[in-house]
Amino acid sequence: MEKVLWIFDHYAVSPDMAGLTIQFDLGKQLVKKGHDVTIFASGFDHRTRKYVKINPSERMKVEMYAGVRFVWINTFPYMANDWRRALNMVSYSCRVLRSTDKLPKPVAIIGCSVHPLAALAGWWVAQRYRASFFFEERDLWPQVMIDMGKLKANSIIAKALYSLEHFLYSRAAGVIVSMPYGKDYVIGKGVAPEKVFWLPNGVDLERFDNPAPIDTTSEISLCFERFRDKFKVVYVGAHGPANGLEVLVEAAYLLSASNQEIHFFLVGDGVEKEKLVRMAEEKGLSNISFLPAVPKSQVPSVLAQADLVVHVLRKVETLRYGLSSNKINEYMASSKPIVTAIEASNNPVVEARCGIAVEPENPEALAKAIIEIYEMPEEKRKELGLNGRRYVEKYHDIRILADQLETILGWKTDTRSFVSDEAKEAALG
Fold it and tell me: Is the whole model's pTM more than 0.85, yes or no?
């Protein structure tokens, strides 16, 4: 029987955009199962700091993608992480309340926190329509802000955010976390264990089995063609403070003189990109290329060009609750060997035996790992790539996660799709 789900996610994106499409990917699978899914997102894009999906003069706009309905909300523009961004968050949460008319009425609502005001709006609308409310805490606000040093734990703002977090915990029928040990954080806040669910990030493998081509005249195609004979080290994703991509530029510098056959490709956008480009120019690097972001549908075609993919993050205390990386899932789906530099309670690359893990923020270690994979026989690199593909097929296929979401929402009672930690460890040996 058809169920209607509304998802309130300020930063959700459609597949023709760059960014995390987890809400759309799950929604598409639920639509295939006969359900109706609407995602309420901002028409002002956080990555590009531009109105991408809506005209500044429009209040809202509705679009359909593979049966998933997107309602784009006109939110206040901003260029930096200042009071204007805070106003952007408030404007989403207020304006979305006036954008729900003339839509199929929900039986369940998910309020998603990167920032908790979006989740609060979801709770408010759930009360209006008497729908079940679920709080998805993808980022642990304000904990992540405190761990990154952007907010003091005893500040008024932090205390207010903790209070809001507690309110949402207490009002939710279920709390959904993506970090593998995020349940420990939520339970530690006094939430009953049976109310907390782990739903990791996943990947749409259909996107990799039938990749959308890249225009052969585009900047990215021309760049890969120019360096087609090089060993291609590729990063695809955000260029933000948390990513710490300076370590990649430093590694490229360390390899620039002695390893002429290795070339770095950084694909994506973000507030740190200009700084990274200047850094590479100041070092006189010719072995690194900065390329624009591509729509999610074209990511598989970009990764297909790589000989090696890299994943790096700054050291952040919040990763003690583990990592569920959309980027790593996509890397694994591409069947490419991975070098990762993270410090978290789990490491999917190690679990899957699909690459090399090194200390974060250590360019020497990163460069050494890249050389190690570069010097491997091609058969060994293929083996690493296939290990990753098998791992993601078993644990992060979006179709499996959609089944799990149905169970969390109470729409089905079959829990056989859930994979226990014990079963996972046994499978990995």
Answer: yes
Task: Considering only the C-alpha atoms of the chain, give the largest distance between any 2 of them, rounded to a whole number of Å.
Answer: 65
Q: Are residues 282 and 172 in the same domain?
A: no
Give the Cα separation of 52 and 72 in Å (integer): 10
**How far apart (Å, rounded) are the C-alpha atoms in residues 367 and 386?**
23
For position 208, what pLDDT does the model report? 96
Q: Is 428 a member of any domain?
A: no
Nearest to 415 by CA among 423, 425, 405: 405
Backbone dihedral angles phi then psi of residue 139, each to the nearest 5 degrees: -115, 140
In this structure, the number of other CB atoms found within 10 A of the CB of residue 425 comes to: 10
Smallest CA-to-CA distance from 134 within 113, 114, 115 is with 113
pLDDT digits (tens, 9 = 90+) for 281-305: 999 999 999 999 999 999 999 999 9
**Structural domain harbouring 375:** 206-393
- Phi, psi at residue 317, to the nearest 5°? -60, -30
* Residue 142 near residue 158, CB atoms below 8 Å: yes
Question: How far does Cα 11 stand from its chain's mean position?
Answer: 10
Contact 297, 15 (CB under 8 A): yes
Q: What's the first-to-final CA gap in the chain, in angstroms?
A: 40
Rg, the chain, Cα only: 21
